[in-house]
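Hello,

Following up on my earlier ticket. Below are the three sequence lines again, exactly as submitted.
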Amino acid sequence: MKYIYAGYIIALAVLFLYGVTLMVRRARLEKAARTLEMENGRSVLRD
Amino acid sequence: MCSLESLLEVMATIDKAIDKRRTVMAAEPVTRPAPWSARRNRWVRAIGVAAILAIALDVYLGLWVTPPDKVQGNLVRLLYIHPALATVALYVAFALAALSSALWLWRRTRAPFFDRLAAASVETGIVFIALTIVTGSLWGRPVWGVYWTWDATLTSTALLLLLFLGYVAIRKSTADPQRRARRSAITALVAFMDVPLIQFSVLWWKTLHQKSTVLNPSLTPKIGGIMGATLALSFVAFLLLFVWMLINRYRIEVLKESLEGAEMEVAIRERVAEAGTSGHLELPADLRVPVSGG
Amino acid sequence: MLRDTLLVAGKDLRIELRSRVVINQMAPFALLVLVLFAFALGPDRNPLITAAPGLFWMAVLFSTMFAVQRSFSLESAEGLHDSMVLAGIDPAGFFAGKLLAIGCELFALEVLVTSGIIVLYGAHVKSPAELLVSGILGTVGLAAAGTIYGALVSGMRLRETLLPLLFLPVASPVLIAGTRAWQIGLQGNSSASSPWLGLLGAFAALYICAGIVLYGPMEDMK
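Thanks for your patience. The regenerated structure is below:
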């Protein structure tokens, strides 16, 4: 039975971590794009 | 002196090149990714929430509500995770990557969308395939006593993981976006073509070699009622999760590429600015010689 | 296309005859692999004979990678690609020509390795037909897949490490099927060999078609 728990826990943990990584990465990139736009005074992100 | 004149000529050429680059830069249309509308953000968030809820329900049903199997006992509970992961990884992620790559390669449908979709699909698929292998291995451990048994499906899946990793390696090794897209697309297609051959060869390797039947944990004869419903739910749940991850990964790819382009531009502009406010390279005063018309 | 195929293959083989890289370097390497396997598996002949089919195909896989890398390093000379394009060489013909040259080199190596196995490991061959057919089909398949990947990574900095990573997983059906066919060749129950030979044939056919179709788009990259 412990193998079952291990399997569930590992799967859920990895998926959760990957999901969080994606969200964090995306937030960082969106922010960087906005910063670049402000620094250069011209639109990086098209409205 | 000859050498000084030729030096000045060289500098004049560099001058012209910088001017040319400036006009080219001003004229170049740069594609920037539009920020997501509120509506799109809401949809993506909804998919994410739905995925989490579905998976939570699947886990609850799988671990506590569904009965243990007559043959496998509690081991059958991995049925509510492993096949869904495998199906998503192989039939959704890989197939999508191959289809995207094919569409990119075909001139008529070529668009950066397909290249980025393929990349996102493969990268997300790697996570699912790795988990498929881990859960499959854990499923087999109590039955066979070892973590790895060279079971036909497990081995095929391991090979597919290697193919996915090769795709990522190629992608990381090429900087130019056009070349990267082309190389990745070809890699994905050539790898995908091999999948049926790998499946057959490994299956025959295992079964035609050993006379004994291989206990395949992913096939249980009777799955009805609550077990069947949970199994179906698991497919939906992990598919939703994959879609959510795919969308986010795709967006990351779009942002990455445009930031790469923007950073390049900034770097070039800085280089150009360094050459002097007038854009001309300046010699120290004592070396300045009037350039003759020749 | 046939004319281009023979042109390119002829060029490669003629370069090989003059530079003798296969003869001087790859052949000793293949034999070296046999000797190293003997060291690894022990002086007792039995494990060696049991493993011989697999060892043969492993040696062939490694040799394929060297042959592919060598073949594409010939193409990296300055301006060579442009002169090919100007000469109007059909990309599919170029692919087939490379394939043919690599295949011939590999086949020669395979004959050598087979003799090595028979002599060094003392294997007895009951049914040589399996060895021959699987050798030909497997070689063609490996050469086709190898040429595709070789072209893909040619010109990249990391090509030496990328080529094995990409090529070897894709080549595993050939390893599996070829080994089984060889086992049957050594043990002699010919009836069991058809699925394996079929698989080798399918692999070869598939990758030849893929190469012909994909080579055009690949050329556009350079």
